[in-house]
Amino acid sequence: DLLINQIAAGEVVERPASALKELLENSVDAAANEIAVTLMQGGIKQLRVADDGIGIVAEELALALARHATSKIATLDDLESVNSLGFRGEALASIAAVSRLSLISRRRGERHAWKVEAAGSDVTGLQPAALESGTAVEVQDLYFNTPARRKFLKSEATEYGHCEEMFRRLALSRTDISFTLQHNGRKIWQLPAGPMERRAATLLGDEFAAASVILDERAGSLRLWGMASLPGFSRGGRDAQYFYVNGRFVRDKLIAHAIREAYKDILHNDRHPAFALFLEIDPEGVDVNVHPTKIEVRFRDARAIHQFIYHALNKALSAPIR
Ligand code: ADP
Ligand code: MG
């Protein structure tokens, strides 16, 4: 079982940032209002995600670390319209197989929290623990027992960069949740809950906010909303291109093409637009996250989606409403 978990871990936990993604998604699924992320040494030494969500009952703590035991999917049909972010029931098991993991949780009304710890295949029994409410998952020494994988890790700075990017992706999409990020004891981000525009300005920069349009276009059951930089805007440094389908960050050729064309029409060769855009679509019309680590989508009616994104963005960019 450990071997199976370690192999699966390779799929799910490519690097600290992929573990962070899974933990953040679990906190979101648990209806957290506040999520605190603490990293040490790029997340390799330590990666902790604490939330104030619904928590896990004591009897289910060990089960939460067991593969597939918790999968929320009853039938394959459910895959078609998965709404919660986590649905495979293997993230915690996979992370635990390649790290020293501690899971502490306290349901509302409990007198204290409970904790289970796992290292490789060893899982401890339940122990009482201290935690105000919600759940805290602490992952230490990623790949301590799989040196071959550890070799593939890049420098601390690079792994940290991936973690911060993952954090940014999620924090941009859930501005109703407040987030903090700490690295090596330093506060990096403190993001109170609030409107998307404010969070985008914080995470993507005031220059972006000042040089962008706010859009909200609808056609039938489709909606595209968010912020997009005006043609000619140059952020310098890394691209800030965030696109979400039903709340999930995606990177998709069809979408990228539609956006590129919308900009190209207005300013020939605008190669580095910045945006945080959210596409809402009937879940039946799209398959998201075909594979654990991939962020691809498959649309049932790709042509219609392309046209809608192109027209909505083109319209907003040609007639800024601010
Ligand atoms: P999945 O999210 O696909 O169900 P995971 O391995 O990520 O699988 O998590 C296993 C289970 O543990 C979840 O289904 C959930 O019941 C519980 N869980 C994990 N993290 C949290 C959390 N932060 N708050 C509450 N429950 C959690
Ligand atoms: Mg999950």
TrEMBL record:
GO process terms (BP): mismatch repair
GO CC terms in record: mismatch repair complex
Keywords carried by this UniProt record: DNA damage, DNA repair
DNA mismatch repair protein S5 domain: residues covered: 200-318
Lineage: superkingdom: Bacteria
GO molecular function per UniProt: ATP binding; ATP hydrolysis activity; ATP-dependent DNA damage sensor activity; mismatched DNA binding
Function: This protein is involved in the repair of mismatches in DNA. It is required for dam-dependent methyl-directed DNA mismatch repair. May act as a 'molecular matchmaker', a protein that promotes the formation of a stable complex between two or more DNA-binding proteins in an ATP-dependent manner without itself being part of a final effector complex.
Family: Belongs to the DNA mismatch repair MutL/HexB family.
UniProt-recorded name of the protein: DNA mismatch repair protein MutL
Portion of the parent chain present: 9 to 330 of 584
